[in-house]
Design brief:
Shape: rod-shaped
Radius of gyration: 39 Å
Helix content: over 70%
Number of strands: 0
Strand content: under 5%
């Protein structure tokens, strides 16, 4: 038969092995109310959308610059072809120095 001392030891051992509901509740930190978390989510989404718009603007600027560079490159190529054409018409040969 178990005496009171043995029962206390068993209860103490059980408490050390198993977590009680109270123990688990003490582990959880409340970070905010549901409304606060919803507001945070809404603000975060708005911030992300703002950053997305800024990135899209920057991408559009880069694309615009690339189109201008492509146009300038076309001009350089055309000028090079024009120079080559003029050299051929005038029959100018390159001289070594």
């Amino acid at each position: 038969m178990l005496d009171e001392k043995d029962i206390k030891k068993l209860v103490k051992a059980q408490k050390e092995i198993f977590a009680t509901k109270e123990d688990i509740e003490n582990l959880i930190d409340i970070v905010g109310t549901k409304d606060e978390l919803e507001n945070f989510r809404t603000e975060l989404k708005a911030d992300i959308m703002s950053v997305k718009k800024d990135i899209n603007k920057d991408i559009n600027k880069v694309v615009e610059i690339l189109y201008k560079m492509d146009g300038k490159l076309d001009e350089v190529v055309q000028n090079s072809k024009d120079v080559e054409y003029i050299k051929n018409i005038l029959n100018i040969t390159a001289t070594k120095r």
